[in-house]
Write a structure and sequence with these properties.
Blueprint lengths: L3 E4 L3 H13 L3 E7 L13 E5 L11 H10 L4 E3 L9 H10 L2 E2 L4 H8 L1 H10 L15 H11 L3 E5 L8 E4 L2 H19 L4 E5 L5 E9 L5 E13 L2 E7 L8 H17 L5 E8 L5 E7 L6 H8 L3 H9 L17 E8 L11 E2 L2 E4 L5 E5 L6 E2 L6 E9 L2 H13 L1 E4 L5 H9 L1 H4 L7 H5 L10 H16 L2
Parallel strand pairs: 1-2, 1-4, 2-3, 4-5
Antiparallel strand pairs: 6-7, 6-8, 9-10, 9-12, 10-11, 11-14, 12-13, 14-19, 15-18, 16-20, 17-19
């Protein structure tokens, strides 16, 4: 039966969701605002709904107005994408009360796993290893100092709520902890509206390993293997790959990590797509970090190595329909995939650099996927996340995937604003990355940004345009 599905998001993820909705024969309904009157995702939707306002609070985060739209437009289900209201317990509960399907997990799972202190307790009770540290929130700096002495430095001060690398500081001694305690509390309050903190042991030379899961409404939970997301700046990922080069051919370890993720999901009766994140030390011991109760930015690389459409199956799960697979043995790794997050930011300082796209070209090799929302004349504003696209390559081996990524990056030209494309080019040829020998300290220790060329894509585009003009006169 055709369902009317409202996509409460924008950009490339709204396009990705709309494509899945259409493919399944449902009606994709998009939102446009005063801030984005030419939003590209609307081209992929059957219907458009206007929300007055030019800020996120007035539009994508406006639950009162969204409730009005859902009721008047006879919406059957809502897909939140990622960010915005995707992990908002109140929004999920509102939909449940309206009898509208939330394409995501049930509200209790969001509530429990969205609180880092609660999720850590649940993990412990489920027999999932957790990073040594505070059991719950730490109220005072004196309490934080006591815990740091017990678990030994270095430690990580981390906001209970939120994510995206905000509200986190590493401390190597008492002085740094005392200095950063109030700083992290203020940042947490500003970013998430709540200043609760945790103190955790900081794992040296860590790898960020996460496991993609998907569950149906019948209690079946499947894993889709792991992703390595250790190339980060300011605790935010910029390069991801699957499977993890650090785990490599250690199938026993791979199975243990994946089954641990499923164990945690079962502890909260999980029933949608989600990701369980772990920190893995150089000794290959791993600890639960957090669970993202939504689809993630880097889901394409998992789709590429498994051949499973995660978005389509996430929607099927929400409606209680049969998934495209019946047991875990049907899900296998096929090749290797890499994703580079293309961001509107300075490739050297890695700070946001909004602007207007005045030229956009792409020439990609076979096995390339570019999830984006770009068009000539588009204004990239500071209001939204600086990520403007996800460049994904797949190869039979990791070496092939890297080689294709180099070619794809060379074939991507975005003119009019700075992007981190040139940084990715350096990373894809840098010795440590090529060998798969890197940790979450990669950017700080290797500093690939210092090798970024000052040549701009504009120069390449200008040369190409000039060449075309000259040929036209011959």
């Amino acid at each position: 039966m055709n369902k009317r599905i409202l996509i409460v998001n924008r950009g490339e993820i709204a396009i990705r969701v709309a494509k899945a909705v259409r493919e399944l024969g449902h009606t994709a309904i998009g939102i446009w605002t005063d801030n984005e009157p030419e939003a590209p995702h609307l081209e992929y939707c059957h219907e458009w709904i206007y929300m007055k306002g030019s800020t996120n609070q007035e539009t994508y985060l406006n639950m009162t107005e969204l409730k009005h739209i859902i009721e008047t437009e006879k919406i059957n289900a809502v897909h939140p994408g990622y960010g915005f209201l995707s992990e908002n317990t109140s929004f999920c509960k509102m939909l449940e009360e309206l009898g509208v399907i939330f394409i995501g997990p049930h509200s209790m799972a969001i509530e429990k796993m969205g609180d880092k202190a609660v999720s850590k307790t649940i993990a412990k009770e489920a027999g999932v290893p957790v990073v040594p540290g505070s059991v719950g929130e730490v109220a005072t700096v004196e309490e934080a100092l006591k815990i740091a002495k017990e678990i030994e430095y270095p430690v990580l001060l981390k906001a209970v709520a939120g994510g995206g690398g905000k509200g986190m500081r590493t401390c190597f001694n008492d002085e740094e902890l005392q200095k950063n305690f109030e700083v992290v509390k203020r940042e947490a309050k500003s970013s998430f509206g709540y200043d609760g903190l945790l103190v955790e042991k900081f794992v040296l030379n860590p790898h960020h390993i996460e496991v993609q899961i998907l569950a149906d409404k019948k209690g079946n939970i499947f894993h889709f293997f792991e992703r390595e997301c250790s190339v980060q700046r300011r605790h935010q990922k910029i390069v991801e790959e699957a499977p993890s080069p650090f785990i490599g051919s250690d199938e026993k370890l791979r199975l243990k990590v994946c089954e641990t993720a499923v164990k945690l999901a079962k502890a909260v009766n999980y029933d949608s797509a989600g990701t369980v994140e772990f920190i893995m030390g150089e000794d290959k011991r791993f600890y639960f970090l957090e669970m993202n109760t939504r689809i993630q930015v880097e889901h394409p690389i998992t789709e590429e190595i498994t051949g499973v459409d995660l978005l389509a199956n996430m929607i099927k799960s929400a409606f209680g329909e049969e998934l495209d697979f019946k047991n875990q043995s049907e899900i296998n790794i096929q090749g290797h995939s890499i994703e580079c997050r293309i961001c509107a930011e300075d490739p050297i300082t890695m700070l946001p650099a909004p602007g207007k796209i005045i030229g956009f070209e792409s020439t990609f090799p076979q096995g390339t996927r570019f999830d984006h929302c770009l068009f000539q004349g588009e204004e990239i504003t500071p209001q939204f996340d600086p990520m403007i696209g996800k460049l994904v390559t797949r190869g039979k081996t990791r070496d092939v995937a890297i080689r294709k990524m180099r070619s794809a990056l060379n074939g991507l030209i975005i003119d009019g604003l700075k992007t981190n494309t040139s940084l990715h080019k350096v990373i894809m040829s840098e010795e440590n990355f090529v060998k798969g020998k890197y940790t979450t300290n990669y950017i700080a220790e290797v500093s690939p940004q210092n090798s970024v060329s000052q040549e701009h894509d504009f120069d390449k585009l200008a040369e190409k345009v000039l060449s075309m003009e000259l040929r036209s006169h011959l």
